[in-house]
Amino acid sequence: MTKKTADDIQRRDFLQLTAAGFGVVGVAAAATPLINSLNPAKDTLALASTEVDVSGIAEGEGRTVMWRGKPVFIRHRTAEEIEEAKTADLATMVDKETDSDRVQNEKWLVVVGICTHLGCVPTGQKSTEERGEYDGWFCPCHGSQYDTSGRIRKGPAPKNLPVPPYEFLSDTVIKIG
After folding, report:
1. CATH number for the domain whose boundaries are 46-176
2. Among residues 4, 12, 142, 159, which one is catalytic?
C-alpha cells in the first residue's frame, strides 16, 4: 500500500468538486424546462386582460365580451337605472352591497355574466330579453333575478354577479383584467 501524498489528496478533492459542479449544472439544465412548463401558455396570458371600446353602446343597452373564457356584461345604464340602483333597500338583499361599491363610473356597470347559483348565463343584456322584476338580469334556469347593479334580489342565487377587476383607460375604453 502506497502512502497518499498531498498532491493525491488535492487531485481527489479537485475531481470531487468538479464532478459535483457538473452534477449541479446537469440538474439545473434538466429542471429548467420542467419549471417553465408550469408557466401559463402565451394564449392564456393573452386572455388575461381585454380592452373594450364602449363608445358604440347606447344608453340602456349592453354588450357581452369574453374574458378568461367567461362572459362579461357591460351595461351603459340610464339615469333611471342608476337611481334605482342607488336607492334600493339593502335590508331586503341577500348579499348586501351598495351600488357605489360595484361601479367605478356610475354610467357603466361591468359584471361577470354567470349566475352565482349554478353557473347559468342570465338573460337581459339585450333590451328584448327578459330582465326580471328589477330590470337587471334574469336567470331562466332557476328564476334568480338581479337588479341594475347586478345584485341578487330574488331567487336561489347566494351572491351578486361578481365584478371583475377593471379600469377605465379613457372615457370610452375599459380594460378588464
Report:
1. 2.102.10.10
2. 142
